[in-house]
UniProtKB/TrEMBL annotation:
This is Pantothenate kinase 1. It comes from Dendrobium nobile (Orchid). GO terms for cellular component: cytosol; nucleus. Gene3D superfamilies: 3.30.420.40, 3.30.420.510, 6.10.10.60. Residues 627-668 form a coiled coil. The keyword Coiled coil applies. GO terms for molecular function: ATP binding; pantothenate kinase activity. The keyword Aminoacyl-tRNA synthetase does not apply. It comes from the Eukaryota. InterPro entries: ATPase_NBD, Type_II_PanK. The lineage of its organism: Eukaryota, Viridiplantae, Streptophyta, Embryophyta, Tracheophyta.
Length: 672
C-alpha cells in the first residue's frame, strides 16, 4: 500500500468526508470524521523535547448513547513534556484508552498507544506503569511526513499562505503535490524532502530552533509562557537592539548608493556599543528582536536548502509557528525576498500535530517496506579541540589556483562574497546572526564586554547544562535510525526551563552561545558555497581572527556539513593564520578592493527586515526619506560620534591601567 486512498478503508479509520469543523480560523480546529465507525481506541501521542501533542477521536453524543459509532471528531491537545502527569491525567479522565466497545472502566491489556517523538522511547515505562499499556513506537520523521501528506491531500482548507497578516487558502494540486520541502520547527528544526507518501529524505536540520528562541526568551524577557512571549513580541521595537544597514553606513550613504537602509545587518548588534545592561532594556523590545532573529535564520536556512534541492514549495510545520501572524509573515517575507518571489512558504492549520496525526494514521497498517528512508547519517560535533586537518591547503594554494572561492566576512553580521578572480567578486548573501549577535547576547546573559573575555568564559563552560541533546529527548541510545548519538545538540538553549539567569552559570551560557552561532555560520557558509559550486571558503573578520576556539568550531562545522568536500581557511590581518599558520595577503587573494563602500554593499544581502507589522520593501522604504529624516540622521551621527569619542577615552584609560598592571607583574616576576 503506498497511498492514502488505498489506506483509508481498513476498518480502523475512515476519512471519507473528513473536513475541518467549527470555526476553522481557531487554533487547531477539530477534524470531523462523519463515517468513522471504529471500536478501537483512537489515540496517538507525539512526545517531543518541549511539548506532548495528543490527537484523539471523540465520538458524537448519539454514538455514545447508542453504543454505535456514527461519526465524531479528531481533537488536538498539547501539554508541556515536563508535565507528563497532566497528559496522563487527561488520557485517564477522558477515558481515551477504552475502545467504544470496551466501556467497562478497565483497560484492555492489549491496547497499544501509537506514539512518536523521542519521548515515546524515553517515557514508555511511565505509560506501562500508569496504565499497563505499551507504546507502539513510530519513527518521528515518518510520522511527520505521513501527517503532513494526509492533511494536504485529505483536508480541504488545511494549508494557506500568509502575507501582510492575510491568510490565503492554498488549493493543493493532488497531481503536483510532490516534491516539497517540509520544515518542521520544533525544539530543533528538521528539513525533509518529501517525494511521496512515505517517500522522503531528512536532508538536514538545525540546532537553532524553537527551543533556542524560547530558551533565550525566558532568560532575557522573564516570560515563562510561550503565548505571553508572542504577545510581548507584538509590542516591541527591534531597532533598539538590532543593527540595520543604516546604522553602519548612515542614511545618506544608503540613499546615495541606492542601498536598503532598513536591512537587518546584525541581530542584537547594537547591544555592545550601547553599554546598557539587560535590565535597561524593555522586555518587549528583547522579545521582538528574538523572534525576528530566529525566524529569519530558520527561513534563510530553509531557503538555502530548498534552493539546493530546487524545490519551490516549502511547507512549515512544528509548534514554533503557533498560528502566529508575525512569525508567518516574517517567514513568508524572507522566503519571498531571498528567492525573488520564486518560492512559496505554506503553512498548515495543524502545524504542531503532524507527528501525532501521522502516528494515528499508522493504525492503517502500513507496511514498513513502503517507506523509503534515505537519511545521510548525521554524526556528532564532538568537543575535542584538535583542529581539522586542512593543513595541506597551505602548500596547495597558489595565486592562480585559488579562484573561485567564497569569502565569508564575520563582522557584526556576516557577509558572503563569491570571489572569481583578482578584484572580481560578487556579493551573494549574508546572515544577521554574526559576531555582534554572539557578543550582544553574551553581554546580556553574562555581562562580558569583549570577545576575549567571552572566549575565556566559554572555555570553562559546559553547554550541556543549557543545550537540549538528542539523549535528553530520546534517552541514552539517541536516535540511531538517523545516526544521531545521544550527545548531539538537538536544540541550543532548549533545556532552559527557568527564567532566572542566576539559575545558570555564565560560562555555560558562553559555551552554548559559541557553539550555537559558530555552527550556524559554518552551516550557512557551506550551503552557500555548495549552491555556488565553490569548494573553498576563506573566513575573515575581527570575530574569528586569532581566536583558535572559534576557528576550530567553524572548521569542524564545515567538515561536518560538507563531509570534507569544502576546504576552510582563515585570513587574519596581522598575518596570523591560526589553523594554517601561514600568511596570505588580501592582494594575493584578489579581495583588496573589498574596502569601505563595498563592505557596505556586502551587508545588504543579509536578512530582510520589516518595520513593525507593516511590511515595507527595501525600495519602498528608500523613497520615504525626506529632509527632516536627513536632519535627524546628522543629529544621530553627531551623537554616535560623541559616544565613540567617550569610548575611545575609556579604552585609552584602560590601556594605561593594563600597562601599569603589566609592569607591576614584570617587577614582581623579576623579584621572584
Ligand atoms: P518538540 O516536538 O521538539 O517538542 P514542537 O513542534 O512541539 O517541538 O515545538 C516546540 C517549540 O514550539 C518550542 O520550542 C517553542 O518555540 C514553541 N512553543 C509553542 N507553544 C509552546 C508552549 N506552550 N510552550 C513552550 N513552547 C511552545
Amino acid at each position: 500500500m503506498t497511498n492514502l486512498d488505498e489506506m483509508e478503508y481498513n476498518g480502523l479509520l475512515d476519512f471519507e468526508g473528513a473536513e475541518l469543523c467549527g470555526d476553522f480560523e481557531e487554533r487547531n480546529p477539530p477534524i470531523s470524521l462523519p463515517n468513522q465507525s471504529s471500536d478501537g481506541a483512537l489515540l496517538a501521542v507525539d512526545i517531543g523535547g518541549t511539548l506532548i501533542k495528543l490527537v484523539y477521536f471523540e465520538g458524537n453524543e448519539e454514538v455514545k448513547s447508542h453504543g454505535r459509532a456514527t461519526g465524531g471528531q479528531l481533537r488536538f491537545v498539547k501539554f508541556q513534556t515536563s508535565r507528563l502527569d497532566e497528559c496522563l491525567e487527561f488520557i485517564r479522565s477522558k477515558r481515551l484508552l477504552y475502545g467504544r466497545g470496551l466501556d467497562t472502566g478497565s483497560t484492555s491489556m492489549n491496547v497499544k498507544i501509537k506514539a512518536t517523538g523521542g519521548g515515546a522511547f524515553k517515557f514508555a515505562d511511565v505509560f506501562k506503569e500508569k496504565f499497563g499499556v505499551s507504546l507502539d513506537k513510530l519513527d518521528e520523521m515518518d510520522t511527520v511526513v505521513t501527517g503532513a501528506n494526509f492533511l494536504l491531500k485529505k483536508i480541504p482548507n488545511e494549508s494557506f499562505t500568509c502575507m501582510h497578516g492575510k491568510r490565503t487558502p492554498v488549493v493543493v494540486n493532488q497531481q503536483n503535490l510532490f516534491p516539497y520541502l517540509l520544515v518542521n520547527i520544533g525544539s530543533g528544526v528538521s528539513m525533509i524532502k518529501v517525494m511521496g507518501n512515505r517517500k522522503f529524505e531528512r536532508v538536514t536540520g538545525t540546532h537553532i530552533g524553537g527551543g533556542t528562541m524560547f530558551g533565550l526568551a525566558k532568560l532575557l524577557t522573564g516570560c515563562t509562557r510561550y503565548d505571553d512571549f508572542l504577545k510581548l513580541s507584538q509590542q516591541g521595537d527591534n531597532l533598539v537592539l538590532d543593527l540595520i544597514v543604516k546604522d553602519i553606513c548612515g542614511e545618506l550613504v544608503c540613499q546615495k548608493q541606492g542601498l536598503s537602509a532598513s536591512t537587518l545587518a546584525s541581530s542584537f548588534g547594537k547591544v555592545l556599543s550601547s553599554r546598557r545592561k539587560l535590565s535597561d532594556y524593555k522586555a518587549e523590545d528583547l522579545a521582538t528582536t528574538l523572534l525576528s532573529a530566529f525566524t529569519y535564520n530558520i527561513a534563510q536556512v530553509s531557503f538555502l536548502v530548498a534552493s539546493l534541492l530546487r524545490l519551490k514549495r516549502v511547507y512549515f510545520g512544528g509548534s514554533y509557528i503557533r498560528g502566529h501572524a508575525s512569525t508567518m509573515d516574517n517567514i513568508s517575507y524572507a522566503i519571498d525576498f531571498w528567492s525573488k518571489g520564486q518560492m512559496h512558504a505554506i503553512f498548515l492549520r495543524h502545524e504542531g500535530f503532524l507527528g501525532a496525526l501521522g502516528a494515528l494514521l499508522s493504525n492503517l497498517n502500513l507496511k514498513n517496506d513502503d517507506m523509503i528512508f534515505e537519511d545521510s547519517k548525521e554524526s556528532e560535533f564532538n568537543n575535542d579541540s584538535s583542529y581539522a586537518d586542512d593543513d595541506k591547503l597551505t602548500t596547495e594554494l597558489s595565486e592562480d589556483s585559488v579562484f573561485p572561492y567564497l569569502l565569508v566576512n564575520i563582522g557584526s553580521g556576516v557577509s558572503m562574497i563569491e570571489v572569481i578572480g583578482k578584484g572580481k567578486f560578487e556579493r551573494i548573501i549574508g546572515t544577521h546572526l554574526g559576531g555582534g549577535t554572539i557578543l550582544g547576547l553574551a553581554r546580556l546573559l553574562t555581562g562580558c564586554t569583549s570577545y576575549d573575555d567571552f572566549l575565556e568564559l566559554s572555555q570553562r563552560g559546559d553547554n550541556l547544562t543549557v543545550d537540549l541533546t538528542v539523549g535528553d529527548i530520546y534517552g541514552e541510545h539517541g536516535y540511531p535510525k538517523i545516526g544521531l548519538p545521544a550527545t548531539t545538540t538537538a536544540s541550543s538553549f532548549g533545556k532552559v526551563t527557568s527564567n532566572k539567569l542566576s539559575d545558570y552559570r555564565a560560562e555555560d551560557f558562553a559555551a552554548a552561545l559559541l557553539n550555537a552561532f559558530t555552527y550556524n555560520i559554518g552551516q550557512i557558509s557551506y550551503f552557500v558555497a555548495k549552491l555556488s559550486g565553490l569548494k573553498r571558503i576563506f573566513f575573515r573578520g575581527a570575530y574569528i581572527c586569532g581566536h583558535a576556539k572559534t576557528m576550530d568550531k567553524i572548521s569542524r562545522a564545515l567538515k561536518y556539513w560538507s563531509k570534507g568536500e569544502v576546504q576552510t581557511t582563515f585570513l587574519c590581518h596581522e598575518g596570523f593564520m591560526g589553523t594554517l599558520g601561514a600568511f596570505w595577503s588580501y592582494e594575493n587573494m584578489g579581495i583588496h578592493d573589498l574596502a569601505a563602500n563595498d563592505f557596505i554593499k556586502e551587508v545588504l544581502l543579509s536578512a530582510p527586515y520589516m518595520i513593525g507589522k507593516a511590511q515595507v520593501s527595501p525600495s519602498m522604504n528608500l523613497n520615504m526619506k525626506n529632509e527632516s529624516s536627513l536632519e535627524e540622521e546628522v543629529k544621530r551621527l553627531k551623537h554616535n560620534n560623541a559616544e565613540l569619542r567617550a569610548e575611545l577615552e575609556r579604552l585609552k584609560q584602560e590601556n594605561i591601567e593594563l600597562k601599569s598592571a603589566l609592569s607591576k607583574l614584570q617587577i614582581n616576576n623579576k623579584s621572584l
